[in-house]
Design a protein that fits this description.
By secondary structure, the protein is an alpha/beta fold. The chain folds into two domains: 221 residues, Spore Coat Polysaccharide Biosynthesis Protein SpsA, Chain A; 115 residues, 3 Solenoid (UDP N-Acetylglucosamine Acyltransferase, domain 1). 19% of the residues lie in helices and 28% in strands. It is built from seven helices and 31 strands. The strands form seven sheets. It has a seven-stranded mixed beta sheet, sandwiched between helices. Strands 14-17-20-23-26-29 form a six-stranded parallel beta sheet, with no helix packed on it. A hairpin with a 2-residue loop joins strand 2 and strand 3. Helix 3 crosses helix 6. The longest helix is centred in the middle third of the chain and has 13 residues. The chain is elongated and about 65 Å long. It starts with a strand and ends in a 10-residue tail after the last strand.
Length: 358
């Protein structure tokens, strides 16, 4: 089961027009990466916990499923059920025959699901959480574990002065069907705040430590960082056939249907999506450009995220930390200072030199 009902408020304005699970990671939707990893681990039956609108987005984007069979479980839009409530609502779809996996939809994780299930069954646990050591645990749910891997205490997003463990909840769980008896039906329930602490007290909550790649994309800087790391893992990703005057500084990822004008410089850490049109003498580095965007001649983009179908005028300058929503229009000779956000479909005709949301 993939939990994909969040609103992605910290990723606005980009999340105003797409759910987090459809954000591209090196030009491939996060959900596609998730399907591929599940099927690679021989998990082919997937339930998506979504709002109806999210289902429409997923189907519209035609995300490849890698052979997975997908069923949808819908949360009411005006009354989100939370992580636990969504699991309870899907009880009939999940059934009571075997343990099942639940994933937070906004994580990018290389988890050995078979090993996680095996650990769960060996401990005869009600719930097993994949846990991972991180440098800053205060952003996440922190698990205190005994020597037998039993989680003795579970604290969601503790304040820095109270942290006693660097093992965090990685957003990947295995549940035995018994979990349904611990979740009330028909109301919002947080599995992290309301269920896990009780299971810890009862001694039926376990942790499974893994050290493979893991990140969430909850904030813009996280989203940029996961793309950087994926680029760095394969710096010679592809060969490009552009005008010989185009300078490509690896690592970069450029969709084969992108167009790049003469004397432009791309990279390092530039990701250019499908059908992007880049003019002459454009400089793009450490940035993500979504599909269908047009970047006109002599523009300069550094450390920004540019949404889908955006138009960037000639001699524009987009500085670090800027986020441009889908189908926005930046006029010629406009400079946007660091940290400016532009809402979807908005037009900016004058330079903005102080952080703001437009």
């Amino acid at each position: 089961m993939i939990l994909a009902g969040g609103f992605g408020t910290r990723l606005r304005p980009l999340s105003c027009t797409r759910p987090k699970i459809l954000f591209p990671i090196v030009n491939k939707p996060l959900l596609q990466w998730t399907f591929e990893r599940l099927v690679h681990n021989n998990i082919e039956d997937v339930i998506m916990a979504v709002f109806y609108q999210t289902e429409v987005y997923i189907k519209h984007h035609r995300v490849p499923r890698s052979g997975a069979h997908v069923t949808y479980s819908h949360d009411p839009l005006r009354k989100p059920l939370g992580t636990g409530g969504s699991i309870k609502k899907a009880e009939k779809l999940i059934g009571h025959d075997t343990p099942f996996i639940v994933l937070n939809g906004d994580i990018f994780a290389d988890v050995n699901y078979a090993a996680l299930i095996q650990a769960h069954q060996e401990k005869k646990a009600v719930a097993t959480i994949a846990v991972r050591a991180v440098e800053n645990p205060s952003r996440y749910g922190v698990a205190e574990m005994a020597e037998d891997d039993r989680i003795t205490r579970f604290v969601e997003k503790p304040s820095p002065g109270t942290i006693t463990s660097n093992l965090i909840n990685a957003g990947v769980y295995v549940f035995s069907p018994e979990i349904f008896s611990h979740i009330p039906g028909g109301c919002p329930v947080s599995i992290e705040h309301e269920v896990f602490p009780k299971l810890a007290q009862q001694g039926t909550l376990y942790g499974h430590v893994f050290n493979r790649f893991w990140m969430d994309i909850g904030k813009p800087e996280d989203y940029l960082e996961i793309n950087r790391k994926m680029l760095a893992s394969d710096p010679d990703r592809q060969r490009f056939k552009f005008d010989k005057s185009v300078k490509v500084i690896n690592p970069v990822a450029i969709d084969k249907k992108a167009q790049v004008g003469e004397e432009s410089t791309l990279g390092p850490y530039a990701i250019i999506g499908k059908d992007v049109i880049i003019g002459k003498n454009v400089n793009i580095q450490d940035s993500i450009i979504f599909a269908g965007t047009v970047i006109s001649d002599f523009s300069w983009i550094d450390g920004a995220i540019i949404g889908e179908g955006v138009t960037i005028g000639k001699r524009s300058k987009i500085e670090r930390g800027c986020i441009i929503g889908d189908h926005a229009r930046i006029r010629d000779n406009v400079s946007l200072a660091a940290g400016i956000s532009v809402c979807p479909a908005n037009e900016v005709s004058k330079s903005v030199l102080t952080p703001n949301r437009l």
